[in-house]
Every structure is written in structure tokens, then in C-alpha cells.
Amino acid sequence: MDTIPLTALSRTIIKPNHALITGDGFVNSTIPGWTNCDVNVIINEAMGAHFCQLLITANPNTTIKGNTQKTQIFFYILEGQCTISLHGKKSNLEKGSYVYIPIAQSYTFDHFTAGTQILTFHKTYEVLENYPTPKPIISHQSAIPQTIYCDDPDLLMQNLLPDQENLTFDMAINIFTYHPGANLPFVETHIMEHGLMYLEGQGIYRLADQWYPVKKGDCIWMAPYCPQWFGALGKEPAVYIYYKNINRFPILP
Ligand code: UGY
Ligand code: MN
User: Does any ligand 1 atom lie closer than 6 A to the CB of residue 228?
Assistant: First the structure.
């Protein structure tokens, strides 16, 4: 039997208003100040997006050090353990921990276990007159309650940032869990943009007028107004973490 692998095949697809990005095509980038680690720039402005989504794969020699300047960063630990130092205070992080670092803050991550993976979302902060900028947050997804989404108890939402009650935040990071067979109740079409990564399970994502099978590890970009729908398949919950821009006037005053 012929066993030659067909290396010219990939599920990755990049369109003007959406993208499905699978790990088989990742190529590493070097980021100044982030040393001895692999960094994959999954989504950014070069694609047409207004935010950035990266995957970091670290090892015990890795240091991730920088200053956010005008761009807030959200770090989510996918696998492994490490330490964050903010304002001279050290905190231990594990799978499911997350760190929100607002603008103009210095940060250092180190003491990684081998194979630690971190997903990041970056957005240039839009200042809101008469509101202070958000403060740093270090927390764990287990501290955030799951709420029923669109009256369907098989759709569960966790808002990792206090964006609903706090207009200082101009981005949301949510974890969306679909029980087996659950689906979005309608095809959403909205001005907000999304970047996401599948954490568990599988299903079918509709993006514009295309239908894509998706699974754990896959990433998706949805431009503003990209019609979107998801249905979970299989016997395990499908879970994704996603970014959304929120809480700002839709045109500059
Ligand atoms: O928050 C959202 O817009 C979310 N329901 N969209 C999505 O999961 N594609
Ligand atoms: Mn949406």
C-alpha cells in the first residue's frame, strides 16, 4: 500500500472576512524580550484583524518580559505552570489561570514547566473619557461562574473579564461551553470581531457561507459582520475561549 503522506493538505483557510487556522501550518516568530520559546502569531493586523492572538510554547529556560505600552494583553494558560511578576509581586499560574495586563505595565513570566502553552490576546486600548483604565487581574477560570446563554441550559458562558458591569474594559474574553448537540440559536451577524481557540471537543462552524469541521487546538478569526454559527458534535462538550471588542462608540466622535 502507498504510505506517502500528502503534505500539501491542510484545513487552514484564510478568507477576507474569516480564517480557520490549524496547528499543522504554524511557523515560529521571534518576539523581542520573549526568549527561549516558540511563538506563533495566529491572528493579527496583517490578516485584516484589529487585534492580535498568539500561542506561546515555553520551557524551563523561557522568560517572557515586556511592557504593554498602548496594548493591553490577556494571557491564558492552556497547559503547564509558570510564574508572573507584576509590580514586584510573584504569583503562580497553572492550567486555566489567566492574567490581564492593562496598558503601560511591565511584566515578567518565568519558571515554566516543560511544554507550558499560553494563549494571548492583544488589543490597543481605547481610552474612555472620565473612566480610569482597568487594573491588572490574576485569576483562574474555576473562579468564574457559568451562566446560561440565550435561555438554553446546554449553552454555558463564562466572562473572564468584568466587562459587563465595567465600561472601562474595551474587550471581553469568554469561555463558551456547548453540551453535546447544542448549537448557537441563530446565525449571529455583528460589528464585534472575534478570535478564538478550541479548548475541548469538536463541531461544525459556519463562517460567512462556508461550513467547517473544527476541533480542539483550532483557531478562528471572524471579522466584523462575518455571519457565524456553531453546532457541537460528538459525545463531549465543545469548549472555546474567545475575544470580542466591546463597550465603545461605533464611530469616532
Ligand atoms: O459573544 C458572541 O458574540 C458569541 N456568541 N459569538 C460566537 O460564539 N461566535
Ligand atoms: Mn459572536
Answer: yes
